[in-house]
Amino acid sequence: MEKEQDQKYQEKKQHGSKLFPFNIYPCTIPLDFPSVSLHWHKEMELIYVKKGRGEIQLETGLFQGKAGDIFVVPPGTLHALYKTKGSSIEYENIIFEVDFLGAGAADLCAGEFLVPLAAGKLLPPICVQEQEEGYDVLKQCLSQMEDLCASREKGYELGVKAAVLQLLFLLIRKHPSVKEVSSPDREQLKMVLHKIEKNIDENLTVGEMAKFCGWSDSHFMRWFKKMTGLSLIAYVNERRLAVAAEALKKTDDKILNISQDAGFTNLSNFNRQFRKRYGVTPKEYREMNDIS
């Protein structure tokens, strides 16, 4: 059961191809999607902010991301991206499986670096900003990956792999030890998030969730805020709005039905909350995404 709950928030999309599991995705919040909810995957991810501002969560840390910031998301890291009020965020997602770097090889690099990296035990989640020492070299690595994937000239895969390895070398040299959230806390959070997702349309209370964890209400509230950066009410509301936004974008269901399926019992409140979060009404949001 715990493994099933753990996998609930695991993204399983294939990035790139099986023989070359590397890809770059240009993304904009809220144009492409309203937000990216808390999740994890076995691939490593680099988030390179190109324009605007937004909130990036890495495990328990919440960062105000701005143009130029580079976020390093090791395999297995819980992470999320949110829109900042009054702004959008344009960024590149660079996602790859560590195995394509040679993690299966029987050599020192694989044993001491790549295998621990794939297990999430080598690098911590990192935010690298423009003023930091070594930033320019990291940015050059990202630009090289970008240019090679755009041109796709013969042998570009070798160039991409070289750029990724160079970037990892720079990061490992600067951040030689992992400071990670304790495993019990991480697993507990994944179980709590699974319960929230499974019961998103129900009235989820602090008391119910605290009982689920076997804790007092006050302890649960402090723990949940520490782990997610949000109160339970704020997190549930964020997830409900995201569920509704996705349905508005991909289905032609009635707005009333969508609001109820997402857990809102009052249509007026849903409309008000949606507009406050995304800057447009549900109807306008649907029209923006060509759903009639």
From TrEMBL:
InterPro entries: AraC-bd (IPR003313), Homeodomain-like_sf (IPR009057), HTH-like (IPR037923), HTH_AraC (IPR018060), HTH_AraC-typ_CS (IPR018062), RmlC-like_jellyroll (IPR014710), Tscrpt_reg_AraC-type_HTH (IPR020449). Residues 190-288 form the HTH araC/xylS-type domain. PROSITE patterns: HTH_ARAC_FAMILY_1, HTH_ARAC_FAMILY_2. Keywords: DNA-binding, Transcription, Transcription regulation. SUPFAM superfamilies: Homeodomain-like, Regulatory protein AraC. It holds the Pfam family AraC_binding. This is AraC family transcriptional regulator. The lineage of its organism: Bacteria, Bacillati, Bacillota, Clostridia, Lachnospirales.
